Automatic annotation (TrEMBL), chain A:
InterPro entries: Cullin, Cullin-like_AB, Cullin_CS, Cullin_homology, Cullin_homology_sf, Cullin_N, Cullin_neddylation_domain, Cullin_repeat-like_dom_sf. The lineage of its organism: Eukaryota, Metazoa, Ecdysozoa, Arthropoda, Crustacea. Residues 370-629 form the Cullin family profile domain. Its main location: nucleus. Belongs to the cullin family. It holds the Pfam family Cullin. This is Cullin-3. One of its GO terms (cellular component) is nucleus. One of its GO terms (molecular function) is ubiquitin protein ligase binding. One of its GO terms (biological process) is mitotic cell cycle. Pathway: Protein modification; protein ubiquitination. It is found in: Nucleus. SUPFAM superfamilies: Cullin homology domain, Cullin repeat-like, Winged helix' DNA-binding domain.
Automatic annotation (TrEMBL), chain B:
This is BACK domain-containing protein. Residues 154-254 form the BACK domain. SMART domains: BACK. Pfam families: BACK (PF07707). It comes from the Eukaryota.
């Protein structure tokens, strides 16, 4: 058998012959006459040439043949068509060239596989692309003409004319392919000028748009333009242009004018907020979020407006002597609802906008230092008895909203103090609508601030529960004859010191004999059960039901009407006189009870005499007498002489025998129901400040104990960080507390650096 | 125009007829055809003439073996003679089916004699896929042209090719006398013989090398009765280390009778060989140091040879590759470009809308 091995050499004429066959075939393919060619034979010929080390000859020969064809035939056709059907001619030439290069590549497959790889030259198809690029697309005027043609077509379409999109698409795809492995050709020959032209176009258009349109119309036009450009890019340019052209439109139509758009008078963001144009705002948000700093611009504008609104809401009007806590908080909640609505429906719950709104609320809420008190009062109002037609769910929702406001409060310790006071009143005066709601609120506070914040509040609840048990035991004790209540139906709440709000001084009020004796009975009972404890009567938060008999109407001064008052329902009544008596149960405070009981023995008493006999502090006495004598006409149990609103020490009081009421049970409202008076507020503030001193000291000691040595600034920062959930301590105050601790020898300054402290165990 | 289009492609299971050398028709499926880039390309171009079988100029057995291999069926090469394997190798190589080529090369390892290995050497040496080969006694280097990114099968083939080829060289060097006296030597083309005879690592007497060379020249009638500038003379002068031979061996070689050297030239060479010094005719003077350098003479001998015959070696296989690989930066760049090319192939296919199966 004869072995057909690969011959090492080939006759030059044979090589020439093979090459001529291949050359003719390539030319026939270029002339679209390939139907008679044998690809098998052509492939073998090309294979043989490469195998016999004639790859270079084949490669350069191919380059020459393709170049010649492009120069002589294709370029001429394209140049001829410059003013007539240019794009179609170019696209056809490109299509033909591509087709022919695929066939040539097939024939020269072995060259691509071996010669091209070993010599790091462009493969056959890429060689074809490069030649077409250099000889046709980038040749002389063709390049400029192609660019201008494409740009003009796009411009025509922007003006609403119909263009041959397919031709543009083919040309763009040709430019992309001609870049071989980059998009350089497409970028240089079309995309870059296209983006420049677009920028100029939209620069002009933005001026006209802004001059002629409102903000909402402008943003809608911009949105439409962006969509239009994106669609164009994806439909008939290269899709990689989409992001770039959109960026140009955004730059020209949004970024360069965003401040103007946002601030357009009577149609900008403020107008949209005022008019609650949720959709327009959403559109604005969508548009501005496309560009860098766009959202910041929007958020700045929203923030400015919100702060303005908020400042107006929290400003105290001196003409009206302060705000109504309920309307104050309600208006804040309403404002919050409005902005929540915008946040959800217009700003897509954007984190940044959300943070800005929160910080704005925090800003203006803390401008008014009464905010903690008002908030507590608002909650008090909602948790008190008497709210009609409000379901549990609604209360829950309101409480949730108030917690949002609560989060913005910096002085949470002040709120805690007020909340404690208000809760104490609700619990002691039995005004709380529902224990569940109260506990729910406390649990919310606990979630927000930790159990330390609410431990005393929970202690208050516990006291009430324990007191109820004690009272039941006490009543059983009385029923079993173990003690004499002196005719008084006594109810005592035993409060743990420290849990409850303390009042200034320990007032030693003279209460009437019967209730005092009843209390003494309870004291003995209680102390017998709990030895070692101390019970102190806190009369200022007590209340009493008095049975009263009026013999009026009796207008003359020498009235003989007796007011029979005593603690308890089964107390003895002193009834005298001939007129038909009217019986009422009067609900009063313990102080008022003490005052009224004086009239059982005396017909007329001056303010001075009442004060001396009851020992009630002046402020409380005035308040008690005001509601009894100059309060609502239906509650005037006493008559004052002279009949003025102000109460002076010489003014005299007597029982209003002409008192009438449709109600059997008459409740005497205390004068100032809502909020604190200015002196009280100052007192509260000073107590808060006092508490803060201890809290700061505790925090300093805690930190120093852990860290041992710390620089002043770091310590201040850590203390602020630890306490910010309750209040924001000022560095000056912290410094004072540190100095105090140094004096108390908890801390010491280091000898090397006076700004560094060490913990002294 | 015979432009093919994806939409006209028949289903994968459709039959394709291949007309082989001798007019016989072999039938297979589109699926199998598409597994080979060359067959796929040829078949796609044949679609313009439906019904006409695809014409191949290979023997039926070779085509059937190739199709079986493409179909994933076992191909038994173990009973084939070397001549059959070489024929199959040459056929399959045209279709760039590198996996089967690697299998054939592995099968060729069965053949150990110098005669066989010289035949294998003859087949492998011209292949463009053969990387630049260094010293066969030195550590075997990986292929200098990194084809891994392009096609792992082609890469594997290049590695196997290198191994087989180096084995051939080792046998040529270690059993040089047998190689030089074999019949297979006579079938080597001039370029391969020249390369073989000039090897500084041949382990044979210079007299035997000369005899082998003169035998080949006689077989190919390279000797000329008149001229002294024919390729035979040049080949002898550039290949043999004449001055490492004894005057006796030089006389035995009968260079004058073979018309390689003139009487005067031979006498001058003999004088020099005898005395160790003396003049040479000017036309031979340039060979003096090369002739004096013994085989296994290390770098000096090889360097001299390169300087002397550089002009002819430059045309030899892989000369351009040798230059490329000296610069590692250039080589890295070459590898990077190759990676790009594999991406190009995909891009190319996308641009043209033609689906190819790259084997």
């Amino acid at each position: 058998m004869r072995i057909r091995a690969f011959p090492m050499t080939m006759d030059e004429r044979y090589v020439e012959g093979i090459w001529n066959i291949l050359k003719n075939a390539i030319q026939e393919i270029q002339k679209k006459n390939n139907s008679g060619l044998s690809f098998e034979e052509l492939y073998r010929n090309a294979y043989t040439m490469v195998l016999h080390k004639h790859g270079e000859r084949l490669y350069t020969g191919l380059r020459d043949v393709v170049t010649q064809h492009l120069e002589t035939k294709v370029r001429g056709d394209v140049l001829k068509s410059l003013n007539n059907n240019f794009l179609a001619t170019l696209n056809q030439a490109w299509h033909d060239h591509k087709t022919s290069m695929i066939m040539i590549r097939d024939i020269l497959m072995y060259m691509d596989r071996v010669y091209v790889q070993q010599n790091n030259v462009d493969n056959v198809f890429n060689l074809g692309l490069i030649l077409f690029r250099d000889q046709i697309v980038r040749y002389g005027g063709i390049r400029d003409h192609l660019r201008e043609t494409l740009l003009k077509m796009v411009m025509r379409e922007r003006r609403g004319e119909v263009i041959d999109k397919l031709a543009v698409k083919n040309a763009c795809s040709m430019l992309m392919v001609l870049g071989v492995d980059s998009r350089a050709v497409y970028e240089e020959d079309f995309e870059r000028p296209f983006l420049q032209q677009s920028a100029e176009f939209y620069r002009m258009e933005s001026q006209n748009f802004l001059a002629e349109n409102s903000a909402s119309a402008y943003i809608r036009k911009v949105e439409a333009r962006i969509n239009e450009e994106a669609e164009r890019a994806s439909h008939y340019l290269d899709e990689s242009t989409e992001a770039r052209i959109v960026e140009v439109v955004e730059e020209e139509l949004i970024k360069k004018h965003m401040k103007t758009i946002v601030e357009i008078e009577n149609s900008g963001v403020v107008h949209m907020l005022k008019q609650q144009k949720t959709d327009d705002l959403a559109c604005m948000y969508k548009l501005l979020s496309r560009v860098q700093d766009g959202l910041k611009t929007l958020a700045d504008c929203v923030s400015t407006y919100l702060r303005e609104q908020g400042r107006a809401l929290v400003a105290e009007d001196p003409a009206y002597g302060g705000k109504n806590a309920i309307t104050y908080v309600q208006s804040l909640l309403d404002l919050r609802d409005v902005f929540d609505h915008f946040l959800k429906n217009s700003f897509n719950k954007d984190k940044m906008v959300k943070q800005r709104i929160a910080s704005d609320f925090e800003y203006f809420l803390n401008l008014n230092n009464k905010s903690p008190e008002y908030l507590s009062l608002f909650i008090d109002d909602r948790l008190k008895k008497g709210a009609k037609g409000v379901t549990e769910q609604e209360i829950e929702a309101i409480l949730d909203k108030t917690m949002v406001i609560f989060r913005f409060l910096q002085e949470k310790d002040v709120f805690e103090r007020y909340y404690k006071q208000h809760l104490a009143k609700r619990l002691l005066l039995n005004k709380s609508a529902s224990d569940d709601n109260e506990k729910n609120m406390i649990s919310k506070l606990r979630t927000e601030c930790g159990c330390q914040f609410t431990s005393k509040l929970e202690g208050m609840f516990k006291d009430i529960t324990v007191s109820n048990t004690i009272m039941e035991e006490f009543k059983q004790h009385i029923q079993s004859g173990g003690a004499n209540p002196f005719g008084v139906d006594l109810t005592v709440r035993v409060l743990t010191t420290g849990f409850w709000p303390t009042h200034s001084g320990n007032i030693k009020v003279e209460i009437p004999r019967a209730p005092a004796a009843a209390f003494e009975t309870f004291r003995k009972f209680y102390l017998a059960k709990h030895t070692g404890r101390q019970l102190t009567l806190q009369a200022q938060l007590g209340s009493a039901d008095l049975n009263a008999v009026f013999y009026g109407p009796f207008k003359s001064d020498d009235s003989s009407t007796d007011l029979a008052v005593a603690g308890g329902s089964n107390s003895a009544l002193l009834a005298a006189g001939t007129r038909s008596p009217r019986r009422h149960i009067i609900q009063v405070s313990t102080f008022q009870m003490s005052i009224l009981m004086l009239f059982n023995n005396r017909e007329r008493l001056t303010y001075e005499e009442i004060r001396n006999e009851t020992n009630i502090p002046e402020k409380d006495l005035t308040r008690a007498l005001q509601s009894l004598a100059v309060g609502k006409p239906t509650q005037r149990i006493l008559v004052k002489q002279p009949k003025t609103k102000e109460i002076e020490p010489s003014h005299a009081f007597s029982v209003n025998d002409a008192f009438t009421s449709k109600l059997h049970r008459v409740k005497i409202q205390l004068g100032v129901a809502k909020g604190e008076s200015e002196p009280e507020r100052r007192e509260t503030r000073s107590k808060v400040d006092e508490d803060r001193k201890y809290e700061i000291e505790a925090a300093v000691v805690r930190i120093m104990k852990a860290r041992r040595t710390l620089q002043h600034n770091v310590l201040v920062a850590e203390v602020t960080e630890q306490l910010k959930s309750r209040f924001l301590p000022s560095p000056v105050v912290i410094k004072k507390r540190i100095e105090g601790l140094i004096e108390k020898e908890y801390l010491a300054r280091t000898q090397e650096d006076r700004k560094v402290y060490t913990y002294v165990a | 125009m015979g432009v093919f289009s994806k939409c006209f492609l028949p289903p994968k299971a459709a039959r394709v007829d291949l007309m082989v050398n001798g007019g016989e028709v072999v039938s297979t499926t589109v699926d199998i055809i598409q597994r080979n880039p060359v067959l796929n390309m040829l078949w796609q171009h044949s679609l313009s003439e439906p019904g006409k079988p695809l014409q191949l100029k290979d023997d039926k057995n070779d085509v059937v073996t190739l199709l079986r291999h493409l179909a994933g069926q076992p191909v038994d090469l173990s009973h084939r003679e070397l001549a059959e394997l070489i024929k199959l190798f040459c056929s399959v190589h045209q279709y760039q089916c590198y996996r089967l080529l690697s299998d054939i090369l592995r099968e060729m390892e069965r053949f150990q004699s110098p005669e066989y290995l010289l035949r294998i050497y003859k087949v492998l040496r011209p292949l463009p896929e053969l990387p630049e080969i260094g010293d066969p006694d030195g550590p075997s280097a990986p292929p200098e042209i990194d084809l891994r990114d392009v096609d792992p099968e082609q890469d594997d083939f290049a590695a196997q090719l290198t191994r087989t080829y180096q084995r051939c060289l080792q046998v040529i060097d270690s059993r040089s006398s047998e190689v030089l006296s074999s019949d297979a030597l006579l079938s080597l083309p001039l370029e391969l013989l020249e390369e073989l005879i000039q090897r500084p690592t041949l382990k044979a007497r210079e007299l035997d090398i000369g005899r082998g060379l003169l035998r080949w020249l006689r077989h190919h009638r390279f000797n000329s009765p008149t001229g002294r500038s024919d390729p035979g003379r040049a080949l002898v002068l550039e290949s043999l280390r004449l001055l490492t031979m004894s005057p006796k061996d030089l006389k035995k070689l009968e260079l004058e009778t073979e018309n390689i050297l003139s009487r005067e030239e031979l006498e001058a060479v003999l004088r020099l060989a005898h005395h160790g010094s003396g003049p040479l005719p000017p036309q031979l003077e340039e060979y003096r140091s090369y002739w004096q350098c013994p085989r296994d003479g290390g770098k000096a001998g090889r360097g001299l040879l390169k300087r002397l015959v550089g002009h002819t070696k430059g045309k030899g296989h892989g000369s351009h590759r040798g230059q490329d690989v000296t610069d590692s930066a250039e080589r890295r760049e070459a590898i990077r470009q190759k990676r790009n090319r594999s991406a190009d192939k995909i891009k190319m296919a996308l641009a043209t809308g033609v689906s190819f199966v790259f084997d």
